[in-house]
């Protein structure tokens, strides 16, 4: 920064890009004397020292905090005289400021010439917008006070996503505080923003939690969608958001191989302006608007992201330095009070980037940016390819006086006029306030007895094979429910009913349908949550749905996870009737798009705990013969086991890949009479299995064959299946 003779300059937190909390707001005053070519340095802080390195010195001398005089209670500043090549530091370990004599240098055309002068060169400036991690020891008293809050740093439980529901696919970004990963949540591709464990006790953790809280309260089509929080076993915390396939806008702007015509620029600018205007309508100032903080989807929708520095105006300390220097408004750089107009200024720089496709002020150092922008009103040169109406808009956005800048709502109106766009500014939440997928469950009526007269039956969904029960869609206490209504109250039905109710009461898992209640009279009925996506069987039978390998892999993996949960629950629960109709698709609706976020198992009437008490039960074949383990048909009656569920799962995998390759659903063994002894002989003795389509990928065919191996011992466990399918899916995504 330039020093003029006899005009003092004060350095401190919130000024000239300095943001470390260890530095006082008014820490150091420097005054240049032209007569002596020296600088008088005075410590203004009553708490913190200043460190001086004289030219050639290896050890600093300390300029103590100002102290009161013996005669009066008025602090006197500690001071010293500095000359060329002397250095000052506001901290012992950072922010070195060197006294330098500058000589004229040649700069690119259009850049202000720097004349010979005495200057201060800040040679270690903190990364703007990122809290610098402390390198000093916390005093013992403070450490004891901080420890409880560090140990209880948790995300709100209502938005927590179990880490086992997230599959990390590929790291797509890394910064000083953490990493961003492409991942899969359920069957939805998401972005996971992790904060490093080492920073959880630092102010970065607070910013991270603030960002999560901010995102959780925002719902707009031009703001990145928040899914929830998670905490990984390694101690890292993470925010889960929607995945934007094209990445950051900066990656597009700076890649000259990607064409950006005037229509595309107009669309990008409109989307970005609408997102910022929405934030301002919620009284939120973003404070770090730049091309890196806009994300772009496959269809070129642009959304505002990265809310680590965003604040409600009523909560914000609106003269604190934040943001990234080339995009920061003059009032931010100088430590003055500011408002939402700082986002408007930054948006002007973003518009300039769209036309220039360059980084702003790349030819200037940090201190030169501050000097030129704050004191001289310098701005990047607007390129010749920028039309006049756009140039006028850019200049109005980055006007030196915030009062002369338009609001973002006015910017949107100007852009609409410039681009002739037929769109209106959406001031309110523009899609339903959907909770994250794990919260899309019905309120559980805890194990209550249901009065059947309170249940409204709407329409029948399905009938069991032996006609012992029918399923209906209906309502109970204004909640949509699924009602399993048993045809009669005989001994067999009562046994199945009691077994299923007893099992469902034990579960509170996203992998199993949740029971709402049961009715014992006048008819047996079980009420469970209604899962709107229907069954896997209905998915395969729906010809309007385009099957892809991505869909097949996702459905297979989620189904395997659900059964693995059953097999891992306590002593293990064997389903004994696995088939496509007993896997339900847990979906949420986003406008006209249904997103699958998991699979739930239903129909546990035949399920039993894998214990010695049920050994006799496992001698009986109860499931549909098409899906039944051939070894259970042996004269020796080899008992049903966990590997028998694996066999059934292999048949289901075949159905999925057959639907993909043949374009329509085909029932297994459709050419056989599956109720005859001939069918049993073919499957058990001759090893007959459905023919795997020739277009089936070998890696998936290998999984199917391993599942339906004639020998139970050769089949994988569901834990192994989950691992294999997860690997296959990850490799698929990496290949795309």
Write structural notes for this entry:
The protein is of the alpha+beta class and about 725 residues long. It has four domains: about 10-120, Tumour Suppressor Smad4 (Sandwich), CATH 2.60.200.20; about 155-430, Transferase(Phosphotransferase), domain 1; about 440-530, Phosphorylase Kinase, domain 1 (2-Layer Sandwich); about 535-735, Transferase(Phosphotransferase), domain 1 (Orthogonal Bundle). About 25% of the residues lie in helices and about 20% in strands. It contains 16 helices and 31 strands. A six-stranded mixed β-sheet has the order 22-26-27-25-24-23, with helices on one face. Strands 5-4-9-10-11 form a five-stranded antiparallel β-sheet, with no helix packed on it. Strands 12-13-14-16-15 form a five-stranded antiparallel β-sheet. A hairpin with a 2-residue loop joins strand 29 (about 585-590) and strand 30 (about 595-600). Helix 8 (about 390-395) runs antiparallel to helix 9, helix 12 packs antiparallel against helix 16 (about 720-735) and helix 13 (about 640-660) packs antiparallel against helix 15. The longest helix has 21 residues, at about 640-660. It is elongated and about 110 Å long. The two termini are about 50 Å apart. The relative contact order is 0.06. The model is unreliable at about 65-75, about 105-115, about 120-160, about 310-320 and about 430-445 (pLDDT under 50).
């Amino acid at each position: 920064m330039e020093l003029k003779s006899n005009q003092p300059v004060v350095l401190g937190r919130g000024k000239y890009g300095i943001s470390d909390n260890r530095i006082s707001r008014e820490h150091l005053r420097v005054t240049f004397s032209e007569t002596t070519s020296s600088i008088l340095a005075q410590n203004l802080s009553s708490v913190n020292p200043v460190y001086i390195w004289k030219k050639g010195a290896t050890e600093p001398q300390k300029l103590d905090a100002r102290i009161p005089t013996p005669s009066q209670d008025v602090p006197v500043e500690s001071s010293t005289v500095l000359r060329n090549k002397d250095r000052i530091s506001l901290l012992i370990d950072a922010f070195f400021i060197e006294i330098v004599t500058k000589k004229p240098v040649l700069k690119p055309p259009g850049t202000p010439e720097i004349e010979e002068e005495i200057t201060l060169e800040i040679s270690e400036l903190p990364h703007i917008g990122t809290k610098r991690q402390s390198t000093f020891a916390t005093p013992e008293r403070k450490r004891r006070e901080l420890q409880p809050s560090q140990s209880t740093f948790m995300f709100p439980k209502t938005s927590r996503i179990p880490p086992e529901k997230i599959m990390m696919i590929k790291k797509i970004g890394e910064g000083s505080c953490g990493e961003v990963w492409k991942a899969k949540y359920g069957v939805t591709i998401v972005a996971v923003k992790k904060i490093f464990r080492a920073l959880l006790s630092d102010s970065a953790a607070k910013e991270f939690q603030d960002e999560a809280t901010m995102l959780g309260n925002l719902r707009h089509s031009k703001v990145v969608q928040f899914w929830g929080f998670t905490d990984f076993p390694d101690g890292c915390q993470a925010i889960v958001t929607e995945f934007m396939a094209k990445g950051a806008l900066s990656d597009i702007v700076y890649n000259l191989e990607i064409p950006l015509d005037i229509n595309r620029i107009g669309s990008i600018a409109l989307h970005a302006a609408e997102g910022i205007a929405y934030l301002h309508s919620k009284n939120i100032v973003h404070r770090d608007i730049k091309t890196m903080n806009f994300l772009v989807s496959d269809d070129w929708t642009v959304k505002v992201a990265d809310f680590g520095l965003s604040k409600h105006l009523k909560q914000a300390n609106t003269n604190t330095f934040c943001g990234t220097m080339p995009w920061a408004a003059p009032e931010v750089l100088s430590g003055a009070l500011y408002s939402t107009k700082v986002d408007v200024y930054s948006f002007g720089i973003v518009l300039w980037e769209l036309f220039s496709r360059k980084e702003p002020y790349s030819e200037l150092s940090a201190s030169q940016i501050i000097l030129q922008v704050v004191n001289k009103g310098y701005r990047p040169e607007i390129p010749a390819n920028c039309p006049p109406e756009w140039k006028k808009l850019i200049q109005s956005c980055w006007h030196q006086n915030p009062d002369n800048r338009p609001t973002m709502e006015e910017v949107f109106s100007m852009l609409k006029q410039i681009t002739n766009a037929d769109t209106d500014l959406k001031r309110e939440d523009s899609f339903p306030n959907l909770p994250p997928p794990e919260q899309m469950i019905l309120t559980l009526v805890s194990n209550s007895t249901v009065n059947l007269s309170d249940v409204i039956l709407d329409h029948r969904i399905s009938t069991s094979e032996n006609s012992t029960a029918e399923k209906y869609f209906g309502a109970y206490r204004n909640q949509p429910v699924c009602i399993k209504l048993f045809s009669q109250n005989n001994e067999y039905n009562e046994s199945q009913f009691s077994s299923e109710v007893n099992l469902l009461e034990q579960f509170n898992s996203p992998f199993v349908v949740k029971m709402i209640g049961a009715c014992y009279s006048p008819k047996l009925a079980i009420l469970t949550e209604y899962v709107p996506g229907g069954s896997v069987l209905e998915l395969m039978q729906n010809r309007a749905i385009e099957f892809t390998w991505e869909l097949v892999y996702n459905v297979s993996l989620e189904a395997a996870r659900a059964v693995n949960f059953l097999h891992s629950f306590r002593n293990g629960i064997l389903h004994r009737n696995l088939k496509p109709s007993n896997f339900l698709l847990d979906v949420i609706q986003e406008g006209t798009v249904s997103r699958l976020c998991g699979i739930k198992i239903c129909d546990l009437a035949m399920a039993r705990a894998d214990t010695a008490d049920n050994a006799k039960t496992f001698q009986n074949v109860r499931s549909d013969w098409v899906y039944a383990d051939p070894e259970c048909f042996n004269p020796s009656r080899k008992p049903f086991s966990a590997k028998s569920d694996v066999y059934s799962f292999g048949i289901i995998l075949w159905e999925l890949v057959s639907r993909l390759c043949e374009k329509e659903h085909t029932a297994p063994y459709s050419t056989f009479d599956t109720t005859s002894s001939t069918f049993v002989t073919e499957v058990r003795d001759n090893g007959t299995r459905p023919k795997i389509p020739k277009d089936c990928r070998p890696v998936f065919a290998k999984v199917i064959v391993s599942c339906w191996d004639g020998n139970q011992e050769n089949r994988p466990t569901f834990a192994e299946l989950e691992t294999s399918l997860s690997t296959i899916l990850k490799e698929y995504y990496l290949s795309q």
